[in-house]
Fold this sequence. Notes:
Blueprint: E1 2-5, E2 14-15, E3 29-31, E4 41-48, E5 53-60, E6 76-85, E7 88-99, E8 118-132, E9 146-152, E10 157-167, E11 176-186, E12 193-200, E13 204-205, E14 211-212, E15 216-224, E16 280-291, E17 295-297, E18 302-305, E19 313-316, E20 319-324, E21 327-338, H1 343-347, H2 353-356, E22 361-370, E23 377-385, H3 405-412
Antiparallel strand pairs: 1-4, 2-3, 3-13, 4-5, 5-6, 6-7, 7-8, 8-9, 8-16, 10-11, 11-12, 12-15, 13-14, 15-23, 16-22, 17-18, 18-19, 19-23, 20-21, 20-23, 21-22
Amino acid sequence: MIKIFFLYVLFIFSHSFVNSQSTIGLDGVMLRSLDGDDVSRIFILDTSDSPPSFDFRGFSNQGTILNNSNIFEKDAVAYKLSSTLGLASIPLTFYFQYFNNSDYQLIYDDINQFIPNCITSIFMPTFIIEYEEINDQDGFQYGSDQFLGYVDLAQLQYKFDYKYINYKTPSFFEDAMVFQLNVTSIGDYENLITIVLYFSSYPVYLGDGKIMSSELLRFDILINDYFNSDINKQSSSECIVNSNGNGNDSDGGDDDGDDGSGSPIKIGCISTGASNNLNSKLAVTSFFAVLEYDISMNNNNKININGFPLAASFSWLPTAKVNVDNEISVANIYTDTHNINTNDAIIFGSNFVPVAITGNVNSKFLIQSFDVERPNVVLWTSYFGIPSKHDFDNSSNNINSTFSFNLIIIIMSLILFTY
């Protein structure tokens, strides 16, 4: 189905809300007036229920973020989620695309039509990893920390629902809107992972002090009850990680991965279930890739897209909100990155990247580890796209201010969605 929304605002309007559809929600939002450094957008939404996917394109009302004053120029952004390409299943893949010329605003992933000042990039989470820290280095390092278990996110089933949060203004124009998409695992692993996406037709101040431009996608990712066997079930009796499990072939046998020592990820294994190791921690593996441009790490919590006149990036807060035994606190996030051609990247899903994005691709493999033992809930935030020029890279703000205490309490009670 196609829905078209015309969005334009002239005044600052303060509004806070708690999402009635999900216990994850922004804790306070203020619209910011346009001042020549951003644009408001018209959005077109195309969704599919089977398989779950969405394609959301936002066209500037007038001007571009490179030249806001030219009313005859247009630019476009696109947010896209896909879990299949053709008949092939792939992990949940989130696209961000920017086009600075209206002639190309409907083109996706076509290298022959690629022009300067256009971006095509993806973010692809692949596994939840359980591990024990044994090498005295912060975070999970495959091959030297104790590998205890995993969930293959590509094999989970998902559903999504979405809503619009309206902002009334004293103008004769239609309301501004913040769009929220909830993606959650279903079936045997219902609510094990939830990903909530937000973007806006208009620049807004968020509850954590960050400014979200109309070219920026926000992720809130929640891992819920990994250590609960009713939620995270062992998918088969053969789906195990051996006692060695650290990538070293200590028994002297061939390192073929069949016993979990060389390659602990087994094809067809959805989940090993949780271990009983009281020292275990969690990590998430993922891939970030971009077409045509180089990428580089910045301060361990941001990947920059280099050579582009806009500050396009993928960034995340350095701490996550966690719950351990009904105690709410924060945990540091340690990020380890590799090039895509390393063995650990191949094990953890790099073969999906050239399926999702083709051409002259540069990519990073990420392991993001949460420094807390056996959490009931992990909740963390990241941003994908072009930040506001006024944001001053304040993504390092502590996540404590992002969510209200009452929302976290509700999350801990596992009431994730109300239909």
